[in-house]
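== Item description ==
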Amino acid sequence: MKVLHIHFIFFFFLFSLGVNAQTTQKQMLSGTGNDDTVNWDFYVTGGMQAGKWSTIPVPSNWELQGFGKYDYGFSKDSLRGKEEGFYKRTFKVSNDWKNKKINIVFEGSMTDTEVKINGKLAGPVHQGAFYVFRYDITKLLKFGADNLLEVKVSENSANKSVNAAEREADFWLFGGIYRPVYLEGLPKNHIERVSIDAKADGSFRANVIAAGSATEVGIKLFHADGKPFGSEIRSNLNKKSGSVLMTGAFQSPKLWSAEFPNLYSAEFTLYQNKQAVHKINKKFGFRTVEVKPRDGMYINGAKIKFKGVNRHSFWPSSGRTTSKSLSIKDVLLMKEMNMNAVRMSHYPPDGHFLDVCDSLGLYVMDELAGWHGHYDTPTGTKLLKEMIVNDENHPSIVFWANGNEGGHNMELDTIFRQLDIQKRPIIHPWQLFDGFETQHYREYDYGIGNYMHGREIVMPTEFLHGMYDGGHGAGLEDYWKAMWDSPLSAGGFLWDFADQGVVRTDKNNIIDTDGNHAADGIVGPHHEKEGSFYAIKEIWSPVFIERREIAEGFDGVFHVENRYSFTNLNQIGFSWKLAKLKQINGVAGDSIKGQIQSPDLKPLEKGALKVELPSDWKSYDVLYVTATGTDKREIFTWSYPIVRPAHVASRIVKKDAANGVKVSETDSLFQVTVNNLRVSFSKRTGILREVKNDKGVIPFNNGPILQEGENNFAGFSYRMEGKNVVIESKFDRKTSYNMLQWTVYPSGWVKMKVNYFPGQYFTSVVGLNFSYPESNTKGVEYMGAGPYRVWKNRMKGNQIGVWDKEYNNSATGEPPFQYPEFKGYHANMYWMNFHGKDQSFAVVTENEDLYLRLFTPKVSHDPYKNYVPVFPSGDISFMQGISGIGTKTQKTETTGPMGMKNIFYDYEKDPSRAKEITLYFNFLGK
């Protein structure tokens, strides 16, 4: 009996092996991405390395590997898109695969692709660069022996409509097998396609299509941790169609959203005569997408405002060949900016990008290619099916886009609806279609008119077109306030995520953005963060904190609004920090931290955030409040100055000393000496002429020169005021109504006080300038908002602190993509310590809201004449009004009220109503 029992167990084990369902097997012929490639033999017909056999990594775009010719979409030269690439690779297929159906799968190839196995065509030439396609090559293979794969790739398509949709476009045009290639081994009886529709109420539908003679399908659902969710559902296949629509209901599923990306796994098993023959797994999410006309877009019953960006599949050194690790980095950067949505521009992405959007949580608009042209109907129908079959089960996809900006084939709209079991909404970007107004780059006034008075759901699929440092964060605060307040607004999508700068293997590996065409990103080509990155992060924070001044009666209460769709603020972490900032003399301060009780506020509710501070909080300089999301990442840190500039100035500026101050006159100068310091002023204009100490001349001079104001300081005289020397102008309402006063203290500190009237009612910039040679500059340390520069219409994203910036000559969106930029406007200056190559000097102000301007950044070429920011003359300026910046498609003033010019009244030159700037200078180098 014992022996019989052992044999029975062994027999049962063998029987179990025999009935286990086969899974789809994969054999890679290429690598998986730009971080994992396989060399194939390669020959290109034109451009670099043409006419000779070599090797090339696959996947890749051949230009980035030193073959062919680089082309941006607007290129019109004779070689554009005419290269053809020939690939060869030998491979073996195991004898174990003899009874399988074997497909060769290409995830993406640019553009027309002809495939041969052992000298025979695998099927018709595939036309279309961005779609997964496959051929059944079972009958063409030799098992257990070498097989020859030959691929001919034509960069330009023989199909005019494919070129119109994909290659006559405003982006880089590449060639080659740029996504993975592999063999797919399937049992003869297998599942060909599964389309899942899982709703927020737990209802579940799956359309299953099978090939072969199988009779039945079963479905089991599993939680993300692998635990079963409900029981198996089984249904018989239709004998004629080989398909079945399976339905079920599941109790209280965890829902998928961008805030809570809960995923499930569906295991589909194909049975033939009760024996399992094939098994596949699909990840999905329970969620409901609903469009309510003249109302909005709803997900799981919550009305959504999309905070989105457009994204190309792109990396500088590999073109459109990316990797899963890059997809993760892209999505994490978007979520770091508090975005909840991304539009695929202007073609479907890599599958791993959609996987990451599913798992980390981003709403996706997936797009059939078509920039300004579109596919013909037969071609578009085929490619559309390839896109939907490949992408349909990703819960992150909540929209389909049929082309872009006129590249819409209307005949394909019904095909979208027929193929998509979920019936997701279809968007025509840039058009008014099916209840969505998506017009691109509307001016603020026109847009707000539509928001307030239109009837459609307003959701621009491109707005605030970035170019260099313009757009994106510049203008977003005005736009978003209007979008948030309008019931008909569903948000929008910025253009675009990253500068598309390619490594030019034909130009010593420089990074080329084709001028202004591709310098559109919020981040640089290698994900360098520009100033707009942080502005967007603050503006799109789902925790909105109303402006609050920290004044004498501060009670620790901040008024907050929950701008999440599903998250209660009691799920968010809050903390505070009080800091004493580093002083101008280099002495660092201390800080203390604490936690804040998270308020119980449901989505869209308003309430109070109470910060319990120690009794000595007034002795600190700044309060920081940080919100942390459910993923433990920072949502944003807000800074609130406690100390005012005048108080900081009183700490720093030392006036009294035992030394005396001496003044003398020449024909043209007042010369003041103290502590080995000599400062010279023009007797006629009061302008600072020279500063010299025992180390030599500090080349800071020729100021103050008023910007957008009359430089009519006149009638200067000097007098002693105790130990101080005072040099000041004389007021005359008609001829010298602007006033300048210098005071030199025994300590060596020099005070400048200017009372002035701006010269124009509307003006871009207002303040005063000095000269300093840029070539003599090492860097600057300053207390204020930083570390990024600001524009009048991009004030968000910085924090009050002490920032040490080395000099750089960076121009945003151009090599070397070094951020933060040194030159430009810096907000809320308290003090600065300016480091020259030979000497340093310090400037301290008593004024709130004073801007420090450091030189004039390069204003990159703008053929549209929209971008141009305005800078004052001189080199170093202290400003009370600065300019905004435009976008590629809009002038500064059309981006909203913050982009408009400054408005000043002259108050009939009443001295009591003049604007005032007070600065203290330390030229002793201490």
Residues 1-19 have pLDDT under 50 and may be disordered. The longest strand covers residues 275-284. The chain has six domains: 22-187, 190-284, 305-539, 551-641, 652-756, 766-922. The two ends are 100 Å apart (CA to CA).
